UniProtKB/TrEMBL annotation:
Record domain Amidohydrolase-related: where: 49-417
A Pfam match: Amidohydro_1
PANTHER family (alphabetical): AMIDOHYDROLASE-RELATED DOMAIN-CONTAINING PROTEIN (PTHR43794:SF11), AMINOHYDROLASE SSNA-RELATED (PTHR43794)
Protein name: Amidohydrolase
Keywords of this entry: Hydrolase
């Protein structure tokens, strides 16, 4: 449907301007003051119009464990996560709905879901997420999370010989499963893209990465993976390859301008040069990096090296929300403590740019969305500047990034379709979603993981931590 947003505030080089925006056939047709009205009129007065952000890395099924897992590093946290993962595709459908809704209501119009699948019901798992994202109407980049090595292999050996039980699915079966997912669900024109996305070097063989690169080339698909999230992964890469993980990924042909890499906390100068050269994108997930004690990704160094950066919320079990504005706030001010030269610090405008065009670039979609540009698809968000959390009137983008906007999103469009109006999602019944999430869960305070106990002693020894006396909690 065509429409005209009237009298919205948009950022320009020097400050802000009040403009009308014509949207025709799902694309931005014109941006200028006092335009002729086409289609329906949307009142943009006292509202800020920005391009939609990209939630460039998350795992929607983790919603079922948000607020739950005790403070532990990734290698232990993940053992508990998988011990209690949801096993009903209907749960995956609901958590994808909730992920989409929370993303929309914090300024996002696209989501990259590194989707944890139910063992043995993988295709159903992908179908459930696809169904949810289509119903909400958000632009969905679904990256089925695949590994071909068992979880115990993700912890460095520390020189101790360890036997691992082979992973449940072979490399070839994983490649075939991805191929099937592409054929069944990949519909870029309808806003559903399937991404080849190995879990990470810590859980994947070279053959898995190479097979996924081949499918990415064959179907021109973006690639996605976790990269050097923890110190343990950095150690593991050196054990496994005798060189840095980044160098190895480059040799596997995995790095290019359509590759996005979640985390990138433990990279050195040589690694940074490789990312700059290959034009791969770093997805910054500040909340989970803090929650899991992984470290602070050197984002200012990446920006100075000309590396494209995007923001992600990461899954709800390690960030406990899908609030993009929260991730953007923490992900921009966090780095001020890493560099005394304040001229390197990230400004609110830079943070917005990273969240929008940075995300689109990492998916090879910068020509299609991510900025207020005539000809691009209408992935847009209007923020209500009369919302209490954005008052009194100062710098709208400063208020949005540095403040704590609460329910400030007034309207959202993705691919030209209006998904949020007057602060409410128009495409699904959110009250019904809330009720279902409530009914399918219970208050839990005494859950005990047995899996953590199986890996904790080895983890502590490899990481040079004193031998444990009590349990992890
Ligand atoms: Zn992740």
């Amino acid at each position: 449907m065509d429409f005209t947003i009237q009298s919205a505030l948009v950022p320009v080089e020097q400050g802000y301007e009040t403009v009308d925006v014509q949207l025709i056939d799902g694309r931005i047709a014109a941006i200028a003051p006092s335009l002729e009205i086409v289609g329906a009129v949307v009142d943009g007065r006292n509202k800020l119009l920005l391009p939609g952000f990209v939630n460039a890395h998350t795992h929607s099924p983790e919603l079922w464990q948000r607020g739950m897992i005790p403070p532990t590093p990734l290698e232990l946290w993940i053992a508990e996560l998988y011990e209690f993962e949801p096993l009903d595709p209907e749960q995956l459908y609901l958590s994808a709905l909730a992920t989409a809704v929370e993303t929309l209501l914090s300024g996002g119009t696209s989501v990259v879901d590194h989707l944890v699948m139910i063992p043995g019901r993988e295709v159903e798992s992908i179908a459930a997420a696809v169904r949810a994202y289509r119903e909400v109407g958000i632009r969905a980049f679904i990256a089925p999370l695949m590994q071909d090595e068992p979880l115990t292999a993700s912890i460095p050996s520390g020189g101790v010989k360890r036997e691992h039980i082979p992973y449940q699915r072979s490399t070839q079966e994983s490649i075939e499963l991805l191929h099937k997912a592409i054929q069944e669900f990949h519909r870029p024109d309808e806003g559903v893209v399937i991404l080849p996305a190995p879990t990470g070097l810590q859980l994947g063989t070279d053959a898995l990465f190479e097979g996924f690169v081949e499918l990415s080339d064959r179907y021109t698909l973006p690639l996605h993976t976790h990269l050097l999230e923890t110190k343990a992964q950095q150690m593991l890469a050196h054990e496994k390859y005798g060189c840095s993980a980044v160098k190895h990924l480059k040799e596997l042909g995995f790095l290019s301008s359509r590759t996005s890499l979640a985390h990138c906390v433990w990279l050195d100068e040589a690694d940074i040069a490789i990312l700059a050269e290959t034009q791969a994108t770093v997805v910054h997930n500040p909340l989970s990096n803090l929650r899991l004690g992984s470290g602070i990704a050197p984002i200012l160094k990446y920006l100075q090296a000309g590396i494209n950066v995007a923001f992600g919320c990461d899954g709800c079990a390690s960030s406990d929300s899908q609030d993009l504005l929260e991730a953007i706030k923490i992900g921009s001010i966090l780095h001020n403590v890493t560099d005394f030269d304040y001229r390197h610090w990230m400004t609110p405008r830079k943070a917005i740019e990273i969240a929008a065009i940075g995300g689109a670039t990492g998916l090879g979609m910068a020509d299609e969305f991510g900025s207020l540009t005539v000809g691009k698809q209408a992935d847009l968000v209007l923020y209500d500047l009369k919302n209490l959390s954005l008052l009194p009137r100062t710098d709208p983008i400063g208020l949005l990034v540095l403040g704590r906007p609460a329910q400030a999103v007034d309207s959202v469009w993705a691919k030209g379709n209006r998904l949020v109006a007057n602060g409410s999602v128009t495409t699904i019944n959110v009250d019904d979603l809330r009720q279902q999430l409530f009914d399918r869960s219970q208050w839990i305070t005494n859950r005990q993981s047995t899996k953590i106990a199986q890996v904790e002693a080895h983890y502590r020894s490899v990481m040079n931590l004193p031998e444990q006396i009590k349990g992890y909690s």
